[in-house]
Amino acid sequence: MFSKGTKRKFSDGDEEISDESLVGARVASSYSLQRQSLLDMSLIKLQLCHMLVEPNLCRSVLIANTVRQIQEEMTHDGSWHMVAEAFCSAGQSPSERLVATEVLCRSREQDAEPKLFSVISYEGCREEEVVADETLCSVSVSDTVSNVCLAGRIGQCWEKSELSGVERDEEALEDSRLGSGEDEEIDTKDRASTESPKTIGQVFGTFEIKNGSPGPDSALEELFSDVDTSYYDLDTMLTGMQSAPKMGPYDILDSLAPSHSSPSIVSTPNCRSDLNELDHIMEIIVGS
Amino acid sequence: MMAGVGGGNDFQWCFSQVKGAIDEDVAEGKHILPLKQRKACPTGPTSSRYPCAVSEGALGSIQRSVIEALQGVWEYRCASDIISTVEFNYSGELLATGDKGGRVVIFQREQESKNRLLSRGEYNVYSTFQSHEPEFDYLKSLEIEEKINKIRWLPQQNAAHFLLSANDKTIKLWKISERDKRAEGYNLKDEDGRLRDPFRITTLRVPVLMPMDLMVEASPRRIFANAHTYHINSISVNSDYETYLSADDLRINLWHLEITDRSFNIVDIKPANMEELTEVITAAECHPHQCNVFVYSSSKGTIRLCDMRAAALCDRHSKFFEEPEDPSSRSFFSEIISSISDVKFSHSGRYMMTRDYLSVKVWDLNMENRPVETYQVHEYLRSKLCSLYENDCIFDKFECCWNGSDSAIMTGSYNNFFRMFDRNTRRDITLEASRENSKPRAMLKPRKVCTGGKRKKDEISVDSLDFNKKILHTAWHPKENVIAVAATNNLYIFQDKIN
């Protein structure tokens, strides 16, 4: 658009925004999608246990710690209110999850040079560095929510977001979009935060944790056959976003991707009843 | 002379034996007759010449099948369940395996025969017995698996052999003894076994010991029960040969071998509120020489060394081993893959080795802040952690072991691969335990996993690895280059090539 020679420093930033903010925002959204998926998977593992043999405590502890980590990060990100949906979607079976590709948790050696994208967040005046490589974008998001992709580099983003977490919370409150749903957010936050320890308490306190059922062999074959490592282009990403859950903090995507439409992954009324039923069953088993 | 892994001028590993059922040969409850047999395996408690005795009562639950043995001899073998532990005894003469069905099978090395060209004897079944039975915990309405989690031998002090076997909740001390003589010549009973009337007995006849067919008996001598609320993951015999420790997820107990009704709790990491639980004990071991020292590892990748002289309750460690985390490689799976699945002291007692999901680390006991050596077992899996989390493979607990001279270490991987690392030359080798390589004295070919795009001939790509074929348990002979590798329900024995 602009010839390079005439760019000023400030407009450099502008140009970067226009060209790369798309990818950056997409990456960020993809990351949070995948993190959400990991959270779902972890919750299912904690709850889906067959009550024949006493569960493996080490495994349960490790999964619970993973859930805690995700929760902490989501709290910092301000996307914790989405966790309500996370709990609801725990009723889904693991086989519905999209099988991961080798993109996930790509090793450091394979990252030649991490690409840094500057993304202007929805607040409009702060930068968020999201480190990713192209293959991060190549996770195919088809009919179901993809598995979590947690590239090693995300850790930097994680730390940075922690540091600026306080700032962000303040700014989040200022934002009018969040402001309207603030009460709701707080409510769901409370509910989620009380639900989470309750779940974890049930996990350990009463040995209600059952071992997650291992995935079927076909899923395993699916995992490691025909891995698609091709780089997705813009169109595919946008197409893929159609089935993505609606993410509040990333509304910017809605404006950027015209084809984006709200998905229907899980019907909310079913989730609530499933969760209550699960609690009910656990109470019976515990006998408390 | 112990040394070497890897090819070239170093030792070459050769196939020696495989024990276990070939899947297609196993039939439910069907006895397959051998085509030719040189040694008859017994069908009852009294054995023939071949010492393959089975303790009474176990026969009904053991399914027999035929496996192809070496040198074309067909022998009966008990159909083995998934092997859950493998352990050589102190001399290496005996090799014990425990399986998911609660059985223990002990192999004994044949005396080296001069007839054969092989300079080393083979391992043949010595004793088989049912160690643990499934139980039901009525309080929690949960089953207690009979799977043998660990077997540890006691050093031999008389003609009999002793070992400890543990399932999730109970530890048992077994005595394995041979009987090859029988007292004969009693004149106190009639032919039909009835006691004779004392007035009828007119002569004093001293019974004479007559040789009989060798019979190996296993009898439980001690049962150490009801001391663990959580699942036992480790047992370790102390160097004083009087005590041993048992560790579950949250507690470690110290037992005396003679006393079964009580044990000392020496480590307790259970929080007051279970909701605060974030770390569990994953393995524990006594120091090989210092009877007051032991270590235990955790799910957070830390190792604590404790001195029992310091306090009755060893919650406060003497040393704390942890490698600082590399912040650039941090992910949500970092903690899970840092969880230590096995810890083993070196024979010298100066080092210890820990196994986490992707690597093996050797620690100097005098340096707590980082390991002295780190070996990558299957780094190519780092990019697949999410998938491995989904199918639960990330929670697999691999074990590791030292060779007799502490110059090499071995651990398992997937696709029936196992890895050996030479600490001196820094060379490593990947080998496969498979039936295809199972010709007598066939040399094992090193395997390689291809991580990049271009796959060379004979390499296997990461995507075609079979994650159901995992080698979790391996053991190295204490004095020689003989290794035992458990691949699901088969036990492979390899030895180095004699030049």
Automatic annotation (TrEMBL), chain A:
<dbReference type="GO" id="GO:0051301">
    <property type="term" value="P:cell division"/>
</dbReference>
<dbReference type="Pfam" id="PF06031">
    <property type="entry name" value="SERTA"/>
</dbReference>
<dbReference type="InterPro" id="IPR052262">
    <property type="entry name" value="E2F-SERTA_domain_protein"/>
</dbReference>
<protein>
    <submittedName>
        <fullName>Cell division cycle-associated protein 4 isoform X2</fullName>
    </submittedName>
</protein>
<dbReference type="GO" id="GO:0005634">
    <property type="term" value="C:nucleus"/>
</dbReference>
<keyword id="KW-0132">Cell division</keyword>
<keyword id="KW-0131">Cell cycle</keyword>
<feature type="domain" description="SERTA">
    <location>
        <begin position="31"/>
        <end position="78"/>
    </location>
</feature>
<feature type="region of interest" description="Disordered">
    <location>
        <begin position="165"/>
        <end position="197"/>
    </location>
</feature>
<dbReference type="InterPro" id="IPR009263">
    <property type="entry name" value="SERTA_dom"/>
</dbReference>
Automatic annotation (TrEMBL), chain B:
<dbReference type="InterPro" id="IPR001680">
    <property type="entry name" value="WD40_rpt"/>
</dbReference>
<dbReference type="InterPro" id="IPR015943">
    <property type="entry name" value="WD40/YVTN_repeat-like_dom_sf"/>
</dbReference>
<comment type="subunit">
    <text>PP2A consists of a common heterodimeric core enzyme, composed of a 36 kDa catalytic subunit (subunit C) and a 65 kDa constant regulatory subunit (PR65 or subunit A), that associates with a variety of regulatory subunits.</text>
</comment>
<protein>
    <recommendedName>
        <fullName>Serine/threonine-protein phosphatase 2A 55 kDa regulatory subunit B</fullName>
    </recommendedName>
</protein>
<dbReference type="InterPro" id="IPR000009">
    <property type="entry name" value="PP2A_PR55"/>
</dbReference>
<dbReference type="InterPro" id="IPR036322">
    <property type="entry name" value="WD40_repeat_dom_sf"/>
</dbReference>
<keyword id="KW-0677">Repeat</keyword>
<dbReference type="InterPro" id="IPR018067">
    <property type="entry name" value="PP2A_PR55_CS"/>
</dbReference>
<dbReference type="GO" id="GO:0000159">
    <property type="term" value="C:protein phosphatase type 2A complex"/>
</dbReference>
<comment type="similarity">
    <text>Belongs to the phosphatase 2A regulatory subunit B family.</text>
</comment>
<dbReference type="GO" id="GO:0019888">
    <property type="term" value="F:protein phosphatase regulator activity"/>
</dbReference>
<keyword id="KW-0853">WD repeat</keyword>
